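Cross-posting from the modeling subforum.

Setting up a comparison between two proteins and wanted a second pair of eyes on the formatting. Protein 1 (sequence, then structure tokens):
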Amino acid sequence: MRTEQIVSKALLNFDGDRYKLSLAVAKRAKALSMGAAPLIETDTRKMKFTDIAIMEIADGKVKIEASVEAKK
């Protein structure tokens, strides 16, 4: 699958919000770089952490939870 198709599929999980998607990819890529195990079944030895993260999100294996803080 091409990168554009993977990103389009991942965007569907965030209602097309690229900002939320980029936050989720960054957070998951950081977790992967810190030793988290990949959630996809593919050879990830030569893949970048961001590529693994976007594929996991596109497959629906990773979700993001939002929190809202009140202004004081």
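Protein 2 (same layout):
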Amino acid sequence: MWSPATVPNVRERELLEEYIAGAGLMQLSTVCADGTPVVCTVWYVPSFAPDRMLFISRQDRVHSRNIRRNPAVAGAVLADPPTELGLTGRGVSFTGRAAELPGTGIDAKKRAFAARWPRSTGVLGAMPDCASRMYEIAVERWVLFDEENFRESPRREIAGQ
């Protein structure tokens, strides 16, 4: 069971933001109607203070349908995944609430996504008429896992901002 995170030190927060900003794919878990989790992989764009993760996906995907029914999500991003056991691992996981955004009135978010992922401009420009939508996750809590910088205690819980 998660308990409220203590106030992170500045270095923990800096590393969390660095790892999230530096990666491109996240594993996203949503909850199916029968209560089972399902994981997908999506390209994302982060923003901080407030902590948000944006991604685009087709509305008919399992995870998209799940979000419309139950907004609870969890996800993870790895920073430079180790190639074998015994090497140091660094990454971030999170929990939060996701929402499907409308196809219009989100121009700044579309621009931010296109700036990071230029090949997304066709899909973004076709909204709201295309089958895809943008989704936004409001991150409630983060878990920084960093065996390189915090060898003795690599798991650091950090409240979302």
